[in-house]
Design a protein that fits this description.
By secondary structure, the protein is an alpha+beta fold. The protein is 25% helix and 29% strand.
Length: 333
């Protein structure tokens, strides 16, 4: 067994037994192979370096209450990576190959899956990149699919904590009909400088507006976002510049199963601020693989700072966290 203090494990890279790698060339995917070395050697003309031909996913494996290790909805990540590959003109990784790779690499590193009760999980990062040299602007002739794994601790040490978010209406995360609805690194690079500005102002997240009118709510940080407004759960509709999150999809199903009133629609900043000022905004939270849910306690817009739910974790937010993690850890069917 690895010498790891599971209770103090953070959310970062830890060396493990191996990762798994596949190479696409001559029009087909080769057999997968385990690789110990966590580094990549590639041509300096690789298309991923020059023209951004790359995409990735984020998912987890959990050790459940009965000791069984499970993957959480890997077929959803596989289908989303296929859509991203098609958008970026890369060879899609078939769903069955994707899931098989995940099962193989988790089994090969099974002792690195944090035990049940520690709050940790095995983070899985599938990566698809153009590794063939391509100096002209065109798709590469060779691609590499890698699935890396690492044990990670709970995203929030000591439990959920409300975060502070700010709206920077002079920055755009993504444009309609661009890459905002697929998981490419460029989306995250585009948000980094605004994130640094927010951090310097004392805020950990940016609440993004749309890139056309800068009027409609889109995402918070690198997460989907939801609000409870006058009893209704509202999340921005997937209009083409918002990533369709697997956690988002799972939460919407949980809410509907609970009989909650749920709307996927355009949500303007004017409606949100009006709800804040009139006491109708009851809760707000981001949701994604890493944090599951992230409650929003303060929101700054222009010169005003608003407090949401007394900067406390809301009832719905807590229920969603408990339910989703309960399913993942096998405490709930």
């Amino acid at each position: 067994m690895p010498n790891i203090d599971w209770k103090s494990l953070g959310f970062g890279f830890t060396d493990v037994n191996c990762h798994i790698r596949y190479v696409w060339k001559d029009g087909k995917w080769g057999e997968g192979e385990f690789v110990k070395d966590p580094t990549i050697t590639m041509h300096i003309g690789a298309s991923c370096l020059h023209y951004g031909q790359e995409c990735f996913e984020g998912m987890k494996a959990f050790c459940q209450k009965d000791g069984k290790v499970v993957l959480f909805r890997p077929e959803e990540n596989a289908r989303r990576m296929m859509r991203t590959a098609q958008r970026t003109v890369m060879p899609p990784v078939p769903v069955d190959m994707f899931i098989e790779a995940a099962e193989k690499v988790v089994k090969a590193n099974i002792e690195y899956v944090p035990p049940y009760g520690t709050g940790g999980s095995m983070y899985i990062r599938p990566l698809l990149i153009g590794t063939g040299p391509q100096i002209g602007v065109a798709p590469a002739s060779e691609y590499t699919f890698i699935m890396m794994v690492m044990p990670v601790g709970a995203y929030y040490k000591g439990g959920l904590k409300p975060v502070r978010a700010v709206i920077l209406d002079d920055w755009d995360r993504a444009a309609p009909h661009g890459m905002g609805d697929v998981k490419v690194g460029g989306n995250y690079a585009a948000s980094t400088r605004a994130g640094e500005r927010a951090n310097k102002k004392g805020y950990s997240q940016v609440l993004w507006l749309d890139g056309v009118e800068r009027k409609y709510i889109e995402e918070v940080g690198a997460m989907n976002v939801m609000f409870k407004i006058d009893g209704e759960i509202v999340t921005p509709a997937l209009t083409g510049s918002i990533l369709p999150g697997i956690t988002r999809k799972s939460i919407l199903q949980i809410l509907r199963d609970e009989g909650a009133k749920v709307s996927e629609r355009l949500l303007s900043i004017d409606e949100l601020i009006d709800a804040l000022e009139n006491g109708k905004l009851e809760e707000g939270w981001g949701c994604g693989t890493a944090a599951v849910v992230s409650p929003i306690g303060h929101l700054k817009y222009k010169d005003n700072v608003y407090t949401i739910n007394n900067n406390e974790i809301g009832e719905v937010t807590q229920m969603l966290y408990d339910t989703l993690t309960g399913i993942q850890w096998g405490k709930i069917e």
